[in-house]
């Protein structure tokens, strides 16, 4: 895709019609006449196209990559902590710890999503990982099961906020033809799983109560492994939060600023991106229009934006489909992760000696394979025949097939093989949906 942009073009001198072909999505016609000015958000995107991919976007991609790693650390740590903490606290329903986490994720995603539209992207983006780091580390001091649930829910609240904002920040700064990175970046979910498993492995072996332990035989001093895991994850998240805020800094999203009617600040943000990328492009405030859109500075206005997501049959259909997909994924994922061991045990699967070594070895292998899934989907969405819709269908069907085959697991080799394939296609599908 190529596009020529004049930095000195005055609004009244713009051509009657600019016609371009967008990347893998068909054709886009921007009608720009004296009476129908090009929206400022479109002009901002034109400026980003003129600047091109550069140091600012790569730096931002690393920062958002931290968010992907943190999110997955938070999600998978629950399945590692839950069985160990249960030995010490003996809760009646141990698996409900995951319910506390998902409740926090849901509320955090909604709250931070609205906050990002009201106060801007940068604030939400910076404090999300910081909140995860603090409450994950503090959760290690939980004296009871109830307190652990509270800290897990609060940490998940910030984690859900991070999930809501990471790709938004990156998407609003990328040239269109680099959009496939939004899908490929999901490979870091697999990396987050691998890192968490490798950290937990020696801690569980050396600092947790043995299998079959009860509160009578499992003292706090004998079961510090899961606490050490939370402390280490909290410190890692804090380190990434500091890097994100002070080293890999971002400018406020110029698109959000334009939507708020803050033209001067949007221009400053665009020119900052251009300067960091060492581009000769410079924008002036005269290139943006005095739009009459009212800044979204209230919750009422933010909720009003939600209604716009369902305007028109095609838009409404797309949103309903995405909501249903995420709803079904939200049901399937915790069922698979949390109840997997219970299912295998109930159905008499013989998957080796059941040792901690085998458990974490298999976890690490399937997690590493999962890293590669989004790499595949990042390629498939660029194939004209497949695009995003057919790639979602293909990866979802493959994931469902291997999940079905997993119910036939009878030995260790099948367990590892099917687990790897499920993680591979699950992350591949996630990457497309999330992007």
Write a brief structural summary:
It contains 16 helices and 2 strands. It folds into 2 domains: 11-308, Up-down Bundle (Growth Hormone, Chain: A), CATH 1.20.1250; 312-435, no CATH class.
Please give the structural blueprint.
Layout: E1 17-22, E2 26-31, H1 40-51, H2 55-89, H3 97-119, H4 121-139, H5 145-171, H6 181-184, H7 187-207, H8 225-247, H9 254-259, H10 263-276, H11 299-308, H12 313-346, H13 356-371, H14 373-380, H15 387-406, H16 412-434
Antiparallel strand pairs: 1-2
Region (Disordered): 1-21
Protein name: Major facilitator superfamily (MFS) profile domain-containing protein
Subcellular location: Membrane
Structure in words:
- By secondary structure, the protein is mainly alpha-helical.
- It folds into 2 domains: 11-308, Growth Hormone, Chain: A, CATH 1.20.1250; 312-435, no CATH class.
- The chain is 68% helix and 3% strand.
- A two-stranded antiparallel sheet has the order 1-2.
- Helix 3 (97-119) runs antiparallel to helix 4 (121-139) and helix 13 (356-371) packs parallel to helix 16 (412-434).
- The longest helix has 35 residues, at 55-89.
- The radius of gyration is 24 Å and the shape is globular.
- The protein starts with 16 loop residues before the first strand and ends with a helix.
- 41% of the residues are buried.
- Its main location: membrane.
- It is a multi-pass membrane protein.
- The chain crosses the membrane at residues 60-81, 93-116, 123-141, 147-171, 178-204, 224-243, 319-343, 363-380, 415-434.
- Residues 1-21 are annotated as: Disordered.
């Amino acid at each position: 895709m190529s596009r020529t942009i004049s930095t000195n073009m005055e609004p009244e001198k713009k051509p009657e019609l600019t016609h371009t072909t967008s990347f893998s999505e068909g054709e886009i016609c921007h009608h720009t006449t004296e009476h129908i000015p090009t929206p400022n958000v479109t002009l901002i995107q034109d400026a980003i196209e003129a600047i091109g991919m550069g140091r600012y976007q790569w730096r931002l991609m690393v920062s958002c990559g931290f968010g992907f790693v943190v999110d997955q650390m938070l999600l998978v740590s629950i399945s590692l902590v839950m069985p160990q903490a249960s030995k010490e606290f003996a809760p009646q329903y141990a698996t409900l710890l995951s319910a506390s986490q998902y409740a926090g994720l849901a509320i955090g995603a909604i709250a931070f999503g609205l906050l990002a539209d009201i106060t801007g992207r940068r604030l939400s983006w910076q404090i999300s990982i910081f909140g995860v780091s603090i409450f994950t580390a503090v959760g290690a001091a939980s004296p009871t099961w109830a307190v652990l649930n509270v800290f897990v829910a609060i940490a998940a609240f910030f984690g859900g906020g991070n999930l809501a904002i990471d790709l938004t920040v990156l998407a609003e700064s990328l040239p269109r033809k680099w959009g496939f990175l939004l899908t490929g970046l999901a490979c870091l979910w697999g990396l987050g799983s691998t890192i968490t498993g490798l950290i937990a492995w020696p801690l569980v072996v050396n600092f947790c109560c043995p299998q079959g332990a009860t509160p009578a035989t499992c003292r706090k001093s004998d079961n510090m492994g899961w606490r050490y895991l939370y402390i280490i994850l909290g410190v890692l998240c804090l380190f990434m939060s500091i890097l994100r805020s002070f080293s890999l800094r971002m400018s406020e999203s110029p698109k959000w600023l334009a939507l708020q009617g803050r033209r001067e600040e949007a221009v400053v943000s665009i020119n900052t991106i251009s300067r960091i990328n060492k581009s000769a492009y410079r924008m002036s405030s005269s290139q943006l229009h005095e739009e009459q859109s009212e800044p979204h500075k209230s919750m009422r206005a933010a909720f009003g934006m939600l209604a716009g997501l369902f305007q028109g049959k095609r838009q409404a259909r797309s949103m309903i489909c995405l909501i249903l997909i995420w709803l079904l994924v939200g049901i399937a994922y915790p069922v698979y992760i949390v109840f997997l061991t219970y299912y295998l045990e109930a159905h008499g699967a013989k998957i080796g000696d059941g040792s901690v070594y085998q458990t974490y070895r298999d976890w690490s292998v399937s997690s590493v394979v999962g890293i590669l899934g989004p790499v595949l989907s990042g390629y498939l969405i660029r194939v004209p025949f497949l695009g995003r819709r057919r790639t979602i269908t293909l990866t979802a069907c493959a994931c469902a097939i291997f999940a079905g085959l997993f119910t036939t697991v009878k030995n260790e080799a099948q367990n590892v093989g099917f687990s790897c394939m499920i993680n591979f296609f699950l992350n591949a599908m996630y990457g497309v949906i999330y992007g």
